[in-house]
């Protein structure tokens, strides 16, 4: 079955972009929003923490702990994770997986050490990629600000070899555009690896999700704004996919 | 109060919180005496089979499990906790398990994406009290690289199709083992924990 994964950007323990779901007491509380998505039928959740400060990190751990009390689907935490101790703390707090991006590029052995210690199933490598020429994409780090010169397709197979259990692939060209996933990129990465690929960046309508999971050959579809702004509900999304012969949990 | 056995194999917080959410008293413990005094036992866990067996033996929990099963207490193994109930595993050569159920643990065959990670459905093969009134096509969350192969077909309460058809729930009398994670399978998963809690109450 293909998975539908809402992504929550959080800073200082609060959802970055407020939502307008009327039935939530506090739409800025990531835990309440996460529990809402669980009830709605989301298959997994990803929290991306964009807090920089040390104090903020503690708030995130607290959020992860509270999530374990209210959310009963798997959830991944990413953002600022750079050491085995960071990973251990997140998993102990209740996260099922952690995702790493910049740290994985700067210290690839961390992927190997982390998957040996905690199991590859909980180590997600996030890849932010930008097109350089047709059929070529470059890996970016530091939240998409810094080019690395690394080829994204090569890096995807490399992180699999190093022990990653899953790849979260974001098209920097499409992110925020609502124009749909970068299908050639998603397909190139999906074909380069044997681990699940989560497509991300650019979803504006339900056909985009279907395309990412079929033409893009991704195992899971991540989206943020279309869910947060209530453009589509999770249930509608799954209904649509099911009608288009994409196997999903209803 | 239900005892959730802590033997250093993964995070048990979600399992404990799942029971709590359903209003069922459960405590995490590594003490065999507490296990002996509990009316219902849960053996969760993720990780390597042989490490798990070593940890159980070191803490004297393997014997506590056998005592609980012998007394007929409701017992629930989850994921690695299901696999440990069997006689042996082919993980790292051959490792000996608890042997509550006859059969062995095998690696998912090559050619499949391993681990089997994500939501999948179950087919009920033999009626099981934990799966009564379960809607058809109910899906649950799996993360595993090995699967159990019971020596007796009657042990296989539910099966799941992942390129191969494997036993996703094994059950006999009051002993249940579930390959997927009920604590990560949303409302329908929590319902299984609730039904297990109900069995414990009745005993």
Explained architecture:
With 250 residues, chain A is of the alpha/beta class. Chain A contains ten helices and eleven strands. Chain A has helices spanning 30-40, 54-70, 84-93, 102-106, 109-118, 152-162, 183-192, 206-213, 225-228, 234-243; strands at residues 3-11, 14-15, 45-49, 75-78, 97-100, 123-133, 136-141, 146-151, 166-171, 197-200, 220-223. Chain A has an eight-stranded parallel β-barrel with strand order 1-3-4-5-6-9-10-11, surrounded by eight helices. In chain A, helix 1 runs parallel beside helix 2 and helix 6 packs parallel to helix 7 (183-192). The longest helix of chain A has 17 residues, at 54-70. In chain B, 28% of the residues lie in helices and 33% in strands. The mean pLDDT of chain B is 95. The longest helix of chain B has 17 residues, at 186-202. Chain B starts with a strand and ends with a helix. In chain B, strands 2-1-3-4-14-13-12-9 form an eight-stranded mixed sheet, sandwiched between helices. A four-stranded mixed sheet of chain B has the order 6-5-7-11, with helices on one face. Chain B is built from six helices and 14 strands. Classes of the chains: A alpha/beta (250), B alpha/beta (203).
